[in-house]
Design brief:
The protein is about 0% helix and about 50% strand. The strands form two sheets. Strands 2-10-9-4-5-6 form a six-stranded mixed beta sheet, with no helix packed on it. It has no helices and ten strands. With about 110 residues, the protein is mainly beta. The relative contact order is 0.34. The N and C termini lie far apart (about 35 Å).
Length: about 110
């Protein structure tokens, strides 16, 4: 199993960012893919939600509301997370993960 994420991003406050996570080595629609973030001080991880690649069903952690969108592109075995209306508090390393494996993380920097 392998999850390969897109590279680091730098954004300004109020903008959006879209991160990709490409899966390989297993049956793509057999597992949920979760999104988790870790803040710069590395004080634990925050679960943001998950997507089911089988039917694109999504579940978001309550705090994110409409600020985050998960999508799936089955033809390329890729899931995406888009964060809208970035603030400095969104600066973190974002990970996609299944129960078996994690991506290497995508660092998002938010700076004016």
């Amino acid at each position: 199993d392998q999850l390969v994420q897109s590279g680091p991003e730098v954004r300004t406050p109020g903008s959006s960012v879209k991160i990709s996570c490409k899966a390989s080595g297993y049956v793509f629609n057999s597992e949920y893919i979760h999104w988790v973030r870790q803040f710069p001080d590395q004080q634990g991880l925050e679960w943001m939600g998950r997507i089911d690649p089988e039917d694109a069903d999504t579940k978001y952690a309550p705090k994110f509301g409409a600020g985050v969108t998960f999508t799936v592109e089955t033809s390329t075995s890729t899931v995406y997370m888009e964060i809208h209306g970035l603030s400095a508090e969104d600066a973190a390393v974002y990970y996609c993960a299944t129960l078996i494996t994690w991506g290497r993380g995508t660092r998002v920097t938010v700076s004016s």
